[in-house]
Amino acid sequence: MAKSNNKNTAVKTKNSNSSFSPAVIITICVALAILAGVIVWSFVAKKANDLNDKTVMTIGDTEIKGLEFKYFYNAAVTSFQSENSSIISYLGVDFSKDLSTQDYYEGMTWADYFSTRAQNTITETTLLYNEAVAKGYTLSKEDNDAIDAELDTLSGAISNLGVGIDYYLQQAYGEGVTADFYKTMRKKTQLATNYLEDLSDSYEYSDEECENYYNENKQTLDTAAFRSFVFKYEVPEDVTEGDDSYKNEARDSANAMLEAITDEASFENYLNENVLTDEEKESLSENFTLSQSATYASLSTDVAAWLFDPSRTEGDKTVIDANNAFNVIYFISCGLDRYNTADIRHIFVQIEEEDNDVSEHESVHNAAVAKAHEEAENIYNEWKSGDATEESFGNLAVTYSDDSSASSGGLMLNVYKNYFTVPEINDWIFDSRNAGDSVLIDSDYGSHILYYVRTGDEFWKLNVKATLSQQEYSAYMEDLKSKIEINANDELIKKLAK
C-alpha cells in the first residue's frame, strides 16, 4: 500500500475567526509556498543588482539591505497568492506584469501594498530576532537540520526542471538570492519565530479575566441562532417618491408567513406548503433557513440589532425590510456558545482521478471513490488489528495520510464546530465522544479515519485568550518600536518593488 510523499490539504474548511497566534505576525511561508507550486508568475524586476547592497531600511542599529528587502517583498507576494488562490482572478491584478503600474486602492498600487507588508514583516522580524539574540537564543540542531532538509527537499522538487537551486530562487525572489542567502534568511526568521512562540506561551489569562473580557464585549463574542426567509421585490425605475406599492406583494407574503409561524417546525412547514416550488424543494439543502453561530458583524445592521437585543426571547419573530426584500426572522437564541473543542487525529485518503474522456467520467470517478475507501479501510483494519493506540494511529498517519497534518501524526488540536465542511465529521466529533473512539467516514473529498484524543478547551475562551494575547503582543511590539528609530528609503524601495 505504497503512498506518495506529497501531502495535500485534505478537506476544505470554512473561514472563521480561529484562535489567534502571535506567530502569524511573521510571514514565513516561503518554502511551503514554493513546494506547493504557487509560484506561477515571474517578476518583472529581477534587475537592480546595484541595489542589493544598498541600505533601504534602518531599524535601530540594524541596516536592511536591498537584497533582504527583495526577499521579504517577493515572499509577501507569494504568501498573498497562496492565501488568495481561489479568488485571484477576481482581484484584477496580473502578477506577470509590473505591480507598480497596477492600482490596488485609492492611489495605492499593488507594489505599494506588498511593499508595506514587506516593511512590516521586516520590522517585526528584525526586532524579534534582535531580542532573541540579546536574550541568548540560538537555533537548535533540530532547527538547523530542518532548514537543511527544507533546502534539500526544494532542490529535489525542482531537479526535474533542469535548473539549479540558485537559479530557481532568483526567479522566485529576485537576482542575488542564492541558497546560502535563503538559508540565512530562514535562520533569522526561525530564531525570531522561536522567541515569539516563547513570548506567546508566557501570556496567561485566568478564567476570571476571560469572563470579565466577555462581559465587556458580549456583542463581539455572542452568536445568534435563527431561521430566516426573504421575499424579494424589485424597485421600478420610474417609481414616484413616496410610493412603495411595488412592495405590496412581497410585504403581504412576508406578513402572512409571520402570522402563521409559531415555532421552528411551522417555519419550515409553511414554506414547503405555501411558498416553495417542487424544483426549489429538490434543490435547496436541508435546514437552509437555519443560521447558527452568526456574529453581529456578519449580519446586516437592522437584522443584527434585532437579534442581539438583550430583551429578545426564544420564539420572537419579525419582518425586516432591507436590501430589496422582506426578511421573515424567527429567533432561537443569542449568547455565548460555551462548547468545548476537541483534539483528534486524522488520516485522510484523497480521491485521485486521472484525466479521462468526459463520457467515462462517472465510471472513473466511482472507481476512484471506491479505491480511496478501500485503501482507507485497509489502513483502518491495519490499525485495529495492531496495538490500536493513539501512538500507532499517529504512525499510520505519517505513513499514509494525504492531509497536511500527516507530519504531526495527524494531530489536530482544538478543532471547533464546523471546522470541517463535511457535516458527518462534525457530527461525529461533537457527539459525546470518549477518548479512543474511532470511525471511518467517506466524503466528497475522500475517506477519513478519525481518532478522538480528548476534549479540548472551551472555544470561546480560546478566542478571548487569543484576543488578549494579540493585544498584549501588539503593546509589546509598539514598546519595542518606541525605543528606536525606524527609517525607510522610499526612493530605493520603489525601485525594488515592482
Which key terms come to mind for this protein?
single chain, alpha+beta, Chitinase A, domain 3, 3 domains, 4-stranded antiparallel sheet, 45% helix, 16% strand
Written account of the structure:
This protein has helices at 30-35, 66-83, 110-134, 141-158, 165-173, 179-201, 207-216, 218-221, 248-260, 264-274, 278-283, 301-307, 361-384, 390-400, 423-429, 459-482, 490-496, and strands spanning 55-59, 62-65, 103-105, 108-109, 223-232, 290-294, 317-321, 325-335, 340-350, 411-415, 438-442, 446-458, 486-488. With 498 residues, the chain is α+β, with helices and mostly antiparallel strands. A 4-stranded antiparallel sheet has the order 6-5-8-7. α3 (110-134) crosses α6 and α4 (141-158) packs across α6 (179-201). The protein is globular and about 75 Å long. Mean pLDDT is 87; it is low at 1-47.
What can be said about this structure in brief?
45% of the residues lie in helices and 16% in strands. The protein has 17 helices and 13 strands. A hairpin with a 2-residue loop joins strand 1 and strand 2.
Sheet/helix structural class:
alpha+beta
Any idea what the shape is? globular
Low-confidence stretches: 1-47
Strand content: 15-25%
Please report the distance between the alpha carbons of the first and last residues.
Answer: 48 Å
What's the helical proportion of residues? Answer: 40-55%
- Please tell me the overall pLDDT: 87
In N-to-C order, the SSE pattern is HEEHEEHHHHHHEHHHEHEEEHHEHEEHEH
Number of strands: 13
**In order across it, which strands form the biggest sheet?**
6-5-8-7
How many domains is the backbone divided into?
A: 3
What does the radius of gyration come to? 27 Å
Q: Give me the number of helical elements.
A: 17
Query: What's the story with the biggest beta sheet?
Result: 4 strands, antiparallel
